[in-house]
Write a structure and sequence with these properties.
The chain is of the alpha/beta class and about 300 residues long. It is built from 11 helices and 12 strands. The structure holds S-adenosylmethionine.
Length: about 300
């Protein structure tokens, strides 16, 4: 990790803004009233960006290449992007980075900058985050970055149609029960169109419904063991190369009704409609009830 994490000093509050809360490593997160959830792990927001996304995708190694394409799905405060750019800058400042961020709410990255929540990144990374939040683009070779605002279910389609192929995808929506629309087989299918043949996608979630959706679109996956976390994340690729095997517990989880995925064929349904569709599919499923799995493993 390149940036020292300093003792927390509470940033100033914006009027009408979400309240910043310190996490265990001293970096700040926000709570979303809309989704009823924190933006980051309370165990450390900056730490999560490094362990779950940068380290899991082996970005230090990938950044040795001449060029690197990164897709940050659910850009939020920009921490995952910042950790990635800080890493590239450290290991290979000449690497040509093409970064795409997708985010619903443009107020979030702006608030992160205005409230000083990004102040612990290197000054040049802060400047890039500020420009992305303000004008949505950075063209400063070797870095080219863009932040596309809107529902990722739509913006991902434009990106895929434009042929964007990511070497690395950071997949960081709110959790499946709170934001099912970004964990559906249908949305994953669009995200998969943007994953390069040798690319890697990392997410913090190990939910069986999430893993089943990745598998249904033809991807392979393995666990990401993250220090200090009870549950592993998930690393996803087109081929099984370089993926660790799922444990017996994880494999059996995929044989239960928890593994019935979310679906959203039109990529426009409400969260409630998507949750209800899954409940109906679970009720008709021949898979074992998840309670038996829980009794055996938890
Ligand atoms: C868990 S937070 C992401 C945190 C972020 N990766 C970071 O490093 O700060 C989830 C983000 O998803 C965004 N979001 C929610 N629904 C979305 C949608 N349909 N399309 C795009 N972004 C969405 C939220 O506004 C929020 O910023």
């Amino acid at each position: 990790m390149s940036d020292p994490i300093l003792a927390p000093a509470l940033p100033p509050l914006l009027q009408g803004a979400l309240t910043p809360e310190p996490t265990a490593d001293g970096s700040f997160t926000l709570f979303s009233e809309d989704f009823g959830e924190w933006f980051h792990s309370r165990e450390g927001a900056y730490t999560e960006a490094y362990t779950t996304y940068v380290e899991a995708t082996d970005l230090t190694q990938l950044a040795q290449a001449d060029a690197l394409r990164i897709l940050d799905v659910c850009y939020g405060l920009g921490y995952n992007t910042a950790a990635a750019l800080a890493t590239v800058r450290q290991v290979n400042p000449q690497c040509r980075v093409h970064l795409m961020g997708l985010e619903l709410d443009g107020r979030v990255p702006k608030q992160a900058v205005d409230a000083g929540l990004v102040d612990r990144w290197l000054p040049e990374i802060q400047a890039m985050l500020a420009q992305l939040a303000e004008v949505g683009q950075v063209n400063a070779p070797p870095l080219q970055a863009e932040l596309r605002l809107g529902d990722a279910r739509q913006t991902i389609q434009t990106l895929a149609e434009g042929g964007f192929q990511a070497d690395v995808i950071f997949f960081d929506p709110f959790s499946p029960p709170h934001c099912p629309e970004l964990w559906t087989v249908d949305f994953m299918g669009q995200v998969a169109r943007c994953l390069a043949p040798q690319g890697k996608l990392a997410t913090y979630s190990c939910a069986a419904a999430v893993r089943a959706a990745f598998l249904e679109v033809g991807l392979h996956l393995g666990p990401i063991a993250a220090a200090g976390r009870r549950w592993p994340g998930t690393l996803v690729r087109w081929s099984p190369d370089g993926l660790d095997a799922l444990s017996q517990q994880e494999q059996e989880h995929l044989q239960t009704r928890a593994a019935v995925p979310y679906r959203d064929p039109s990529l426009q349904d409400s969260a409630d409609a998507i949750r209800q569709r899954r409940q109906q599919e679970q009720a008709q499923s021949g898979l074992a009830p998840t309670s038996q799995w829980r009794k055996r493993w938890l």
